[in-house]
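#data-curation
PF: Archiving a pair of folding outputs for the training set. Convention for this channel: one message per protein, sequence first, structure tokens after, nothing in between. First:
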Amino acid sequence: MPKVTRPRNEKGEFLVDYEEKVFEDVKAEPGEKALVTFHTVAFEGSIGFVNLLQATRLKRKGYDTSVLLYGPGVTLGVRRGFPTLGDEAFPGHQNFNKQIAKFIEEGGKVYACRFALQALYGHGEGALIEGIKPINPLDVLDLVLLHKKAGAVVIDTWTL
């Protein structure tokens, strides 16, 4: 059996060069848009949270950024908590709510499909985090098409 002779990693050490940036720091030109769509279930994987962070980063880079929650993606936008709404039952329990609220506070727009909200997940508009705009299911495709016509950056978030 081989022996490991390397010293144990210690707190505060660097294992990678996190400061090297290979590409230029791209910023939006005036009027440029971005859309991040979510067809993913809250807490079913990291992609929902990671791309909420990406949406926030796009906003901070100057893009007029929108988030679309449709299908199971509406589950990212509902108020949650336990034992009461707003309570954090475990560390990270409110990560979606907090990140969406921060994104909206910074000027981002969030839309949620009314069909998915009611027909698929049994929620009303009152279940949404404050600032999320409920939209008609026919608006889902049009929102995507409007961003495509504007030449927007589009990031589609899906999980199976």
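PF: Second:
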Amino acid sequence: MRADARKNRDHLLAVAGTAVSEQGVDVSLRDIARRADVGLATLLRHFPTREALLDALLRTSFDEMTATAGELEASSSPEDALVTWLRDCVAWTTEYRGVTVLMAAAIEDTGSALHASCVTLRAAGARLLTRAQAVGAARADLDGTDLFALVAALAWLSDQPSLAPRADHLFDVVTSAILTRPVSAGTGGAPPSGP
């Protein structure tokens, strides 16, 4: 790709990121083009569909969250790694309004441009969960699909104005239900309250 085309593409992605953060994944492509000070045809030349634009916008974040899981796996206890990744993943999904619905649909749709990234992200979380389960630190009756659904549910809570103030508390409630033993103080998870 030519340098000027790359610069235009990067500018469109930056503008799209802001627009999706403010208005959600259903933001008008025409509005994104207007904000970027380009014509709709220019936007569509770079990103022929909304999903192609969202895939380009989200792929880097998916890749970063997947890499973070690997780093945590190598550097933290199983329970700390799981809770830290879960918190980071929930925080990331709240950056883009409506992304959790998109992710849930993409994971089931093998034809979706986002499918491979979502499957890889879910697998990264599942590895952390399996690692915690192997040492008895997490409930054995959960799997990667459950964990992915909990990320979506926790992100949804943060996106609800009336519930957002309770999001951290509810995150701690959920993680203490996942874990069978306390995490270290640095990860922000609450210790389990019972069996």
